[in-house]
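Retro notes (design track)

What went well: tokenization of the new backbones is finally stable.
What didn't: we kept losing track of which sequence belonged to which structure.
Fix going forward: every design gets posted as structure first, then sequence, in one message. First example under the new rule, 221 residues:
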């Protein structure tokens, strides 16, 4: 009787381990991404802190073993602290971009991931004196680091690079202002929990050139 019970317990443990391997299987996915971050825009008169909000969706599709291609886009908000404007302005707009991602699948618990993205941002701003402006910038984003997996949990750490340049077009008075990234490098960390084999909730944070958090709801297929 005891031997049969021991066999059943071992079978249950092995079955649970096999099920754990199913979490985060390679494949396509759709994401809902909600995030805000601070970064410095470099104007001709110095650096100004920008508060950026990105709320959108992403669709990812595998193109080879461990490689995937992503299309992302959505709603964008922007506030720049003390920017060289006649009066303060804030605005909203949209973003759209492409990303290539690599994530190894050979290791049981530890793998390596990297991604490279290029994203277009466009924001229209207005103020109480009916003056308006449009800010458009193009961003290159790259990151790389290890990924730790255990059962339903996924932990990612690493370093990133951001580079962007853009133009602010003011209507009253009319002028063109160029801006770029004041700082380029930093670190990131993230933790995700799988609710079921194809659905997860993740929280990601960045520090350094970009300070912010992002909440990601992912459904894999």
């Amino acid at each position: 009787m005891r031997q049969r019970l021991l066999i059943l317990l071992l079978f249950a443990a092995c079955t649970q381990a096999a099920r754990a391997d199913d979490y985060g299987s390679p494949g396509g996915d759709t994401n809902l991404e909600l995030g805000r971050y601070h970064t410095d825009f470099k104007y001709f008169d110095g650096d100004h802190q920008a508060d950026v909000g990105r709320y959108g969706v992403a669709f990812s599709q595998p193109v080879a073993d461990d490689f995937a291609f992503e299309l992302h886009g959505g709603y964008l908000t922007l506030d720049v602290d003390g920017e060289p404007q006649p009066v303060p302005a804030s605005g909203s707009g949209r973003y759209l971009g492409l990303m290539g991602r690599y994530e190894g699948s050979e290791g049981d618990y530890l793998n390596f991931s990297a991604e490279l993205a290029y994203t277009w941002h466009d924001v229209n701003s207005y103020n109480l004196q009916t003056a308006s402006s449009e800010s458009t910038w193009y961003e290159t984003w790259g990151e790389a680091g290890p990924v730790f997996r255990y059962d339903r949990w996924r932990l990612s750490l690493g370093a990133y690079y951001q580079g962007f340049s853009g133009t602010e077009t003011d209507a009253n008075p009319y002028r063109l202002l160029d801006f770029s990234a004041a700082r380029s490098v930093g670190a990131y960390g993230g933790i995700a929990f799988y609710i079921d084999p194809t659905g997860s909730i993740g929280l990601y944070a960045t520090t350094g050139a970009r300070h912010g958090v992002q909440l990601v709801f992912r459904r894999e297929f």
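Added context from the reviewer: The longest strand covers residues 46-64.
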